[in-house]
Each structure stands twice: as C-alpha cells, then as structure tokens.
Amino acid sequence: MITTLVGCSYDYNINNLEQEKLEYSRLPLKLQKFMYSIPECNPYQKDILVVDSIDVKRYHVEEIKTIVGPWIAFFVLSDDKKEKAYRIDRELATPYIIYADKLYIPDRYNIFCGEDFRSAIYTVYQLKITQKQLG
After folding, report:
1. What pTM was computed for the model?
2. How far is CA 51 from the centre of its chain?
C-alpha cells in the first residue's frame, strides 16, 4: 500500500539544521532551572515547552497526518514571529523545549516522570535567526 502525505508547508527539516548533543549538566543554567519547575508526571503537559514566557504564544506544534489511516506523518513547529516552520520527524521524543532560538529534544519520552530529565541526552538544534538578529 502506498501512503501519501497531506501537503504541508515547512521551511526547514530539523535534520538539516546545525545540531549537537548535550547532557543535562551542559544545558544552560536557566533551562536546567526551568526543567526542575515542571510538575512530575503531569498528564496535561504539552508537547512544546517554551522557557521564556515572552515567547510562549510565538510557537506552536501541528500534527501532519497521512491521507490514509489515522497515522501521524510528522510534526511542524511554527515560529509565528519569524514566520518560519520546521519539520520534526514523528519518531523523535517530546516535549520539544525551546530556549534562546534553540530547540532541545530529549532522547526519550516521559523525561518528567521521576528524575529522568537529568539523565537524558538532548539534541540541540539551532533554529534559523533573521539578519536583523545577526547585526
């Protein structure tokens, strides 16, 4: 069976962005403190966590489903301020954590049940910045 994906526009695939892997101890201190503030095993936790409260409404995540069946093809993270969209493969764990124009994705799900967030490895993606931010 051939599955066709619903057309969706995105500017970048995160796999093509500059990236690095970091242990919890190498994350920015503000991000570490933010992670400690997340309620443990919260059933209402969202798939996206934005560290700076000023940016909370700036980002959103959308599921892109396949045409056939109830399956998710991939996710799109949108930055409404910069009008940029990023494709995220469905196999990657959540939550997607955004801080200082970077996207942090843990290597496993459920990192906020117990102390798992401290033992996770995070892939850090440099989100695209505008020319105005550069100079």
Report:
1. 0.88
2. 12
